[in-house]
Design brief:
globular, two-stranded antiparallel ribbon, 3-stranded mixed sheet
């Protein structure tokens, strides 16, 4: 199955470096990730959180990655990175369907930033528009769509 191009990826990374990373609260050790994922997943009213695994040591291009079933993180990670990867988990399915860095992902990411880092989506919206990034403010997890399952 060929995936569609992730057209917003570079813009999202640049926006995140400028708008989110400077407002982060520091780094966290790997051991805190699974309890945080479990707590956030539960807080969102969801079951079956993704498993947290170490990012392979040989990985040079990735800071982290995630899908519906798994988040992979380095030994230490910035707090906002966990929310970014959780947005990937929320915007994908166990079968591999994903929004990439598209409007659903960005809508979910903004919801997580607002809820857990207290960064108001309304305050971030002008910078998203300026960066040419589309987002869906009403985004819901992809796997909650009818017929997608959890």
């Amino acid at each position: 199955m060929r995936r569609p191009a992730d057209r917003q990826r570079a813009r999202v990374y640049a926006w995140e470096d400028a708008e989110v990373a400077p407002r982060g609260g520091g780094t966290q050790p790997f051991g805190r990730a699974q309890p945080m994922v479990d707590a956030i997943w539960r807080d969102l009213g969801l079951r079956h959180p993704p498993a947290v695994e170490p990012l392979p040591r040989q990985s040079r291009r990735l800071q982290a990655d995630a899908n519906r079933l798994r988040l992979r993180l380095p030994p230490e990670w910035p707090d906002w990175l966990l929310l970014h990867e959780l947005a990937h988990a929320l915007s994908s399915t166990a079968e591999g369907h994903s929004d990439g860095h598209g409007p659903r992902f960005m809508g979910l990411y903004l919801q997580l930033l607002e809820r857990y880092m207290r960064l108001p989506a309304a305050a971030l919206a002008p910078s998203l528009r300026a960066a040419g990034i589309a987002w869906d403010p009403a985004a819901r997890p992809l796997f909650l769509e009818p017929g997608r399952g959890d």
